[in-house]
Design a protein that fits this description.
The structure holds two protein chains of two kinds.
Chain A (H helix, E strand, L loop, with lengths): L2 E5 L2 E5 L4 E8 L5 E7 L5 E7 L5 E3 L5 E5 L4 E6 L8 E8 L9 E3 L3 E6 L1
Parallel strand pairs in A: 2-11
Antiparallel strand pairs in A: 1-3, 3-8, 4-5, 4-9, 6-7, 7-8, 9-10, 9-11
Chain B lengths: L4 E3 L2 E4 L5 E6 L6 E7 L6 E7 L2 E4 L8 E4 L6 E5 L8 E8 L7 E3 L3 E5 L1
Parallel strand pairs in B: 2-11
Antiparallel strand pairs in B: 1-3, 3-8, 4-5, 4-9, 5-6, 7-8, 9-10, 9-11
The chains are: A mainly beta, B mainly beta.
Chain lengths: ~120, ~110
C-alpha cells in the first residue's frame, strides 16, 4: 500500500523568504510523485511531477522539488515567496504497478501563509 | 481544451435525504476518480474507474454511496441516505492514462448535510 505524509499542516513565511514544504512517501513500487496547489473554492492544479526522468523537477511559478529515494522524500521549494503563493499544497503519489496501479494518493496538505 | 466539469457546485440537504453529483471528464481520458475532501484534510479516494470498469472502490462506503460511469465517459456519484459526516467537497478528476500523467480536477461540489 502506498501513503504520503506531509510534515507540518501550516507553514508561515515572509514575502521573499525561502519556501520549504516537506513530503515523504511510502510505496512498494517505484512511485510517481506530484505536487498540487489548491486555492480557496478551487479544484487542484498541478505544480510539478516526478516520473523518473530527473530527480530535480522544475514546475510552474518558480517551484521545484527534488526526489530523494534514500530518504523517500519529495520536498517542494521556492527560493523567494510571493504573496500569491498563499494556498494549500498537496503532495501525491501514484502507483505504477500491482494493486496501486494508477491509484493517486494524497497527503493531508500544508497551508502556506505568506506575510508582507 | 475543456476541463473537468462538475455539477452542482453547492448542495445543501437534510440528513437521510439522497443526493447525486455529476462529472464530465476531459474527452479521451480513460481514468476517472471521485475524491472526498473534508475540511482541513487531503482528498480521500472514493472510487477509481478505468473506462467504465471499477479499478478501486475499497474506501467507498457501499452501504450508502454508489457510483457509475456509463459508456466510459460521464460519471455520477450518489449518496443515499446522507449523514452529517458526509459534509465535504466531492472532487472529480480525470487522467489520460493510469499512472504517470497529470490528473485534472474539477472545481468540486460542496455538500452540506444539516
Amino acid at each position: 500500500a502506498q501513503s504520503v505524509t506531509q510534515l507540518g499542516s501550516h507553514v508561515s513565511v515572509s514575502e521573499g523568504a525561502l519556501v520549504l514544504l516537506r513530503c515523504n512517501y511510502s510505496s512498494s513500487v517505484p512511485p510517481y510523485l506530484f505536487w498540487y496547489v489548491q486555492y480557496p473554492n478551487q479544484g487542484l492544479q498541478l505544480l510539478l511531477k516526478y516520473t523518473s526522468a530527473a530527480t530535480l523537477v522544475k514546475g510552474i511559478n518558480g517551484f521545484e522539488a527534488e526526489f530523494k529515494k534514500s530518504e523517500t522524500s519529495f520536498h517542494l521549494t521556492k527560493p523567494s515567496a510571493h504573496m500569491s503563493d498563499a494556498a494549500e499544497y498537496f503532495c501525491a503519489c501514484s502507483g505504477a504497478g500491482g494493486t496501486s496501479y494508477g491509484k493517486l494518493t494524497f497527503g493531508q496538505g500544508t497551508i502556506l501563509t505568506v506575510h508582507p | 481544451e475543456a476541463g473537468v466539469a462538475q455539477s452542482p457546485r453547492y448542495k445543501i440537504i437534510e440528513k437521510r435525504q439522497s443526493v447525486a453529483f455529476w462529472c464530465n471528464p476531459i474527452s479521451g481520458h480513460a481514468t476517472l476518480y471521485w475524491y472526498q475532501q473534508i475540511l482541513g484534510q487531503g482528498p480521500k479516494l472514493l472510487i477509481q474507474f478505468q473506462n467504465n470498469g471499477v479499478v478501486d472502490d475499497s474506501q467507498l462506503p457501499k452501504d450508502r454511496f454508489s457510483a457509475e460511469r456509463l459508456k466510459g465517459v460521464d460519471s455520477t456519484l450518489k449518496i443515499q441516505p446522507a449523514k452529517l459526516e458526509d459534509s465535504a467537497v466531492y472532487l472529480c478528476a480525470s487522467r489520460e492514462r493510469g499512472f504517470d500523467t497529470e490528473a485534472f480536477f474539477g472545481q468540486g461540489t460542496r455538500l452540506t448535510v444539516v
